[in-house]
Amino acid sequence: MDRVQDLIEKLPKPLRNKYLILLVLFILWIVFLDDYNLINQNKMKNKVNDLKDQKEFYLTEITNDSTELSKLRNDTNEQEKFAREKFLMKKDNEDIFIIRDKRNE
Hints:
This protein is mostly helical. The chain has two domains: about 1-35, no CATH class; about 35-90.
């Protein structure tokens, strides 16, 4: 017991303050040890931001696709254009030449 008292007395006066020790322990607990510590909170915040960006991207894709779908349902010229571009369809008297870029292969 005397050794512990001697050790405590050798510490500087601010380090013997029980409120300061408690504050340091609290900060360590909040930053590193808690389940919802600041590090995990930061990771979750970044993930939420990424998910919001993905949501915005997919919503714009949905609107683009829905406008294209409505055009395809209502306009025969759009249907023909879509069939020619996506499925390489042709009329009976036409020839199709496919030119592929070597950089994309």
